[in-house]
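Predict structure. Chain length: 379.
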Amino acid sequence: MPRLKIEIDSSEEKEIIEFLKRREDSEAKRLIRFFSFPDLSRNPESPIFELVQRVLKIPRFADFDDVKVPEVVPTRILFDLFNMPPGHPARSKSDTYYVDENHVLITHDTVMWHYYFEHPAIKEKIAEGKDLGVVCYAKVYRKDEIDRTHMNVFHQLGALYLTRDEKRKIVLEDLKKILGDVAKSIFGSNVEYNFTPEVFPYTDPSIEMNIKIKGEWLEMVGSGLPRKDVLKNFGVEGYNGWAFGFGLERLAMVSMDLPDIRLLWSNDERVKKQLKLGNKFQEVSKYPPITRDISFVVSKDFIPNNYFDLIRDIGGNLVEEVQLIDKYEDEEKFGSEKISYTYRIIYRSNERTLESSEIDPLQNEIYLETEKQFHAQVR
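Prediction complete.
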């Protein structure tokens, strides 16, 4: 049977995005900016797209359905159904972008399970006891530090396979074979890989696959056998199988020896023509950095990931890295509820030489917004 291409048209998501556009606060503007980022997994000129296509060409996935999910989803779907109740670390506002108390930006591709099982054609397959197979690749969002290997907008690819219990019992060896095929499709038949035990809330047992790159082991894929109680949350009973998911940027960077994740989004033709998997990236003229420090005293409930968002909002892709230089408490000097931070912001363009006259206004805005948004005392 040919694969189904399922694109979820969420009226709820559309309404939320329109509401965000009417808001004037910095958080709403930040989220709208995120939505404007192109989905590189669907851009034929991107190595992220090439990664996806290599996996989809594995014979095992030839008849897997393909689902595209919303980018704004209810917390009930993203967390509750996947065995992540209130209080679970994955729900932390220091890591997850909340639109409101009940809706968040998608943080993992596994959310596809819900939308897949809800589709009428898939409900029919389940009623008939047919095997189920689906892949999903998408932009996901997570608050993170600022350096050359992290962005808060990135891409994941995941897959799920289920079969009836009476037909076959899936074991970890079945999953390991599939993961081996995935690794070989990306890094070639000679790639070395191993597996280590892991813990995920929606699979049990769970494993992580690691690949050996330049003599070092790199985490590649999180995976496992779907928990029966989690499948039951979606109304699916009498099935067993395997599932996996992984981030795409990290693998693309490793494949090309890419030194900076921002290069994946570059419009510089000298960069774009080199972005092919397996092609070792040759650094174009490396432009000098401009560094600026900022020190401030702030409440102890300060969340660094939220501050990194502020810096990204203002500095955009000109910010290469933010380093923590100093952090200390002094009850006599600041009081018992305050703490001092010093950060170094490193500005560098991958396409041109920056001038102080360009960076100084950005840094001044960061000073002002640090005081305004975090009620900090800039020193």
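Summary: The first strand starts at residue 5 and ends at 7.
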